[in-house]
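Morning, I've got a small favour to ask if you have a moment. You're getting the sequence in one-letter code plus the fold written as tokens. Thanks so much in advance, here it is:

===
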Amino acid sequence: MQAVVTLAGEGTRMLPWSRGLRKEFLPLYDRGSAGELVLKPVAHLVVESLAGAGADRVTVVVQPRDAGFVQSYFSVDQGLLLRHRRTPDRLVETRRFYRTLGQVQFGFVSQPRAAGFGDAVLCAKGTVGREPFFLHAGDGVILERERGSVLRAMGRLREDEDLDGVLLVRPVADSRRYGVVEGVPEGAVGPYRRLRVTGMVEKPKRPRTHWAATAVYVFGPALFPALEAVRRTERPEELELTSGVQHLLAHGGRFAALTLSPRTGVWCSVGSPEGYALALARTRGRARRLPRPQAND
């Protein structure tokens, strides 16, 4: 299955850091093969999650200025392995990631200017085509017991019921700062509570629910013409993904949402200094509790 990862936002809340380096490459903690704490960029963890969910093709949306660095990071550097061949213990995690890269085909597309999350997704239309795809923002990651399990559940649900999309939501204290999902409870999918989505509104002043959209989705191909229709008719300055979802809902589209809970996973975003500090602390605590990975991972 295909996947789209967005690394094209300006990251203004993380200035001055983001003036030189992308927030998606801020390091978070993970557990290494020998049980030690290791640091991995957020985007690195995102790709591991997508690969764990079964993605075999990943399109990365980048700004032109970042294209070289991003492509380099998601490529196997044989020179690096050669230079450090006498200290193989330092290459264990790098080799693990290179094995992951060997299982995934990467493509890179540019978003000429930061014009909204929906615009970044629309940039990937030419590579995704008319196939379903995972969508994952590059500045956040789900902390879960088995990496990729939430995405797998979302992908199966979309395929089994031929839905236009499956969203991932979580309860928040103040949902005015998020894309808010409205829906009707529809039982459960495994350990995840399920909603039938009836609406989605971007940063409403008076939200009707406390369900905030998490920047992890599975979509069918109808999302692209929906985003194009919104751009053509509404001519927004910034094209929001929320508008594409709402357009599809208004025209008979079918969406479900799965809900995150402390039992099933925690969303960590590095979109702000406070968010990054919390994500760093959470991933460190989680990495210390994780069992040691198997030797053949």
Remarks:
- The domain at 2-289 is CATH 3.90.550.10 (Spore Coat Polysaccharide Biosynthesis Protein SpsA; Chain A).
- The chain has a mean pLDDT of 92.
